[in-house]
Structure prediction request, 296 residues.
Amino acid sequence: MTAKVIDGKAFAAGVRAQVAEHVARLKEENGLTPGLAVVLVGEDPASKVYVKNKHASTIEVGMASFEHRLDASTGEAELLALIDQLNADPKVHGILVQLPLPGHLNSELVINRIDPAKDVDGFHISNVGRLGTGQKSMVPCTPLGCLMMLRDHHGKLAGLNAVVVGRSNIVGKPMAQLLLGDSCTVTIAHSRTKDLAEVCKRADILVAAVGRPEMITGDMVRPGATVIDVGINRIERDGKAKLVGDVHYDSAAAVAGAITPVPGGVGPMTIACLLANTLTACCRANGLAEPEGLTA
Ligand code: NDP
Prediction:
């Protein structure tokens, strides 16, 4: 069997087009422009690229983008004051503080200062709690993107066995909560899991969010399963820099029913879902119906 390739790049383009359409309608019918504020502290090169891409994508869908670049030495009080100001600004519907923050800043304190209704990354403790208790929340972008692709591929997910490898707060745990919300039977595996291969082999849906290049191999995949590879690992092979996932693509694709590639799978969905979350936040803030198909 050769797996169907789930084209995240094309899927993300579709999500961005839907968002753009909604934004145009909000402007025309309600005189509203959704706005996303991104805060970057310091000079981390990868973070700078992410922030640049987020800005460009925000503008592209017709939203307002507010960039705040602060010096690496910015103190906690100054950063918190900026967040307070963004919380109070009616033009700002979504706030994202690019992580990681420089070591002298307490990320938890900073993230929890964001108004939960504007927390488009879904990392605020109140959104984490809401997701865990099945209440309406802002959902972390990467797992939301995975969920959208899974719903699109399977239709209904109810009753499917889902295995999530990885239990981080930003990917593994919220992914598991979302799959549970769609009535999957969910197993979360991690570094202490016994016989990981056997656990993975039970999965109709296998999500890899491990951070270890090509760790999930074809022999760990149940024939016909859907494999979602969240991993982004930069490795060197044959003297060349290469981007690979947490799944060994060739061996897994030979067994799976469907698989996301790296690059071009989950990655592009993350920014698309950030835009979707900003749109959702804007609709909620103004008492308008939420965009269909773009929320959890
Ligand atoms: P973390 O390092 O925070 O978490 C990794 C998880 O994998 C941990 O729960 C860890 O278990 C588990 N793990 C590590 N080694 C093993 C092992 N040998 N067997 C089983 N489980 C193991 O990573 P993130 O969740 O932040 O990210 C995961 C991957 O996703 C990374 O490659 C990252 O780059 C990528 N990523 C991609 C995004 C995208 O936009 N596509 C966005 C965010 C992340 P334990 O808890 O026991 O230590």
User: Anything to note?
Assistant: The chain is about 40% helix and 15% strand. Residues 142, 165-168, 170-172, 189-193, 196, 209-212, 230-233, 246, 266-267, 270 surround NDP (CB under 6 Å). Residues 30-116 form a domain with the Rossmann fold fold (CATH 3.40.50.10860).
